[in-house]
């Protein structure tokens, strides 16, 4: 059994996606790998890379102190066992044990912390999650992940381009142009 543990300095990180690195140990407590956390620099894509790294290293379970609901949901959907460590100073060897008496199992995404960023996106119409009432297409290779200014960010459907025509309307979303399929 391989256990993934988010680390900051020599202790379990207080926040899963803000850990400096991910430590992988086996059931004897032997280190199987130690990798930099891609979520520190890559935003949402980095969080997906973090989940992929955990899976690629054969982890069966993950230890967390605090984790957001979205990321917890991704871990659980991959059939990973997730456990809440109550104390960040717990010896790493403890987590090699097959029975973690002092850890609460996380079995539902609601056990994680609500994401302030995700709540803000939804309040603004869900642009990056595309929760609008229209179909929305991106040009090849473009997405809504690269927003430069949250304060002035608008939903795709809030501003029109001067390049509009009858069948396709060019809109601005996250500072990029996209085609909207006419209704």
Overview of the molecule:
- The protein has 183 residues and is of the alpha+beta class.
- Helices cover 19% and strands 25% of the residues.
- The protein is built from 3 helices and 10 strands.
- Strands 1, 2, 3, 4, 5, 6 and 7 form a 7-stranded mixed beta sheet that branches. A 3-stranded antiparallel beta sheet has the order 8-10-9, with no helix packed on it.
- The longest helix is centred in the first third of the chain and has 18 residues, at 39-56.
- The chain is globular, with a radius of gyration of 20 Å.
- The protein starts with a strand and ends with a strand.
- Residues 127-183 have low confidence and may be disordered.
Helix content: 10-25%
Distance between the termini: 52 Å
Quaternary structure classification: single chain
Largest sheet: 7 strands, mixed
Given the helix and strand composition, which structural class is it?
Answer: alpha+beta
Average residue-wise pLDDT: 74
Number of strands: 10
Overall shape: it is globular
The unreliable regions are: 127-183
* Backbone CA Rg: 20 Å
How big a fraction of the residues is strand?
Answer: 25-35%
- Give me the number of helical elements: 3
Order of helices and strands: EEEEHEHEEHEEE
Report a brief summary of the structure.
The protein contains 3 helices and 10 strands, in the order ββββαβαββαβββ. The protein is α+β, with helices and mostly antiparallel strands. The chain is globular.
